[in-house]
Amino acid sequence: MGKKSLYNVLSKSINKMPSSIMYGNSRFDKKQISVMEITEPVTLSWVALMLAEGALQSLGGKVFESLLSSDLELDITKLQDEFFRKIELIVRDVINENEISECSYLIEEITNSMKHYNNSYATSEDRLTTATSDVGKLTSKCRSLGFKCLMPFCNAVALQISILQERLFRFKEPTECLNIVQICQESADYIEKEALPAFLNWNLSRFTEVWCIPDGVPQPGEPCVYKVDGKPIFGSDRVELEKMRIQHILRESKENREVLYPSLFQIVSKWEEIMLMYGVQRTRDSIY
C-alpha cells in the first residue's frame, strides 16, 4: 500500500488538520493529497514519521483509526519483520527469532488494544491501560537489541507518544505532558549517543588497518593492502591507500545508514517539534 492511499485515509479522519503537512523535508498541501501520486512504498520509518505527525496534530489514539483502517492493508508487524530481514542481510548477523517474535506479538497486542479502544471508547479505559503497558515493553525490548533494532525502536517510540497523548486527553493528567517530553528527549539521546555510535563502530569493524608486505607478494606492484569483510583491497602507496580506506569507510557508513535508517534524522526532528509543542526545548549533544 503506497503513501497516497494512507494520506487519503488520514485526510478523511483529520477534520481539523492544517492546510499542509510535512513528510521528511517535503510539505504537502492538504488539497493535493487526494490526487497526488506518491509511489514510494510504506516503510517502518514512514509509519514512524506519520505517527509523529499525528502527535503534532494532537490526534492521540485517533491516529490508530487511520493507520489501522480496513482500507489500508497496513501491517506494521510485517514491516517490522521486513526490517529485521534487511538488517540480517547487511549486518550478516541473525537476530534471535524469539526476540523478533516478542516484538511482533507486542505490536499485534498494541494495535488490537487501540483498535478496540477506539471502537468502544466509553468502556475501554482498561484497553488503553493495557496498550500503555505493552508499548513500554516494546520500546524497552527494541532498545535492548541495539542498533540492529533502531527503526523498530523509532516506531515503538512513535506508538508510545500517541498512546501517552491519548492518556493525556482522556485522564487530563498534566504529568503525561512530562512523560511525552521525557520519552522524546531520552529516545533522541539514545539514538545519538548509543545506537548510531554502535552502528558506526560495527561499520568500522568490517575494515582492517592498512599494512604493507614485501613487493610482489601477493599482488605484484601493489604491496599494501586492507580488507573489508575479508576482501582484500590492494594499493601501491600506503598513504594513498589509507586515504582510500577512510573514504571507503565513510561511503559504506552513509550507504548502509540510508538503507537501514531512512528518515532517521527527520524522525528525531519530529520528536523535537513535539517537545516544543509541550513547551520544552530539547537539550542535546548533536552528531548531525
Description:
The protein is mainly alpha-helical. The chain has a domain at 3-186: Up-down Bundle (Delta-Endotoxin, domain 1), CATH 1.20.190. The protein is built from 10 helices and 5 strands; from the N terminus they run αββαααααααβββαα. The strands form 2 sheets. A 3-stranded antiparallel sheet has the order 3-4-5. The radius of gyration is 22 Å and the shape is elongated. Residues 1-40 have low confidence and may be disordered.
Q: Which key features would you list for this structure?
A:
single chain, 288 residues, mainly alpha, Delta-Endotoxin, domain 1, three-stranded antiparallel beta sheet, two-stranded antiparallel sheet, disordered N terminus
* N-to-C span: 32 Å
Give me the side-by-side strand order of the main sheet.
3-4-5
What general form does the structure show?
Answer: elongated
From N to C, what is the helix and strand string?
HEEHHHHHHHEEEHH
- What CATH architecture label of the domain at 3-186 applies? Up-down Bundle
Average of per-residue pLDDT values = 82
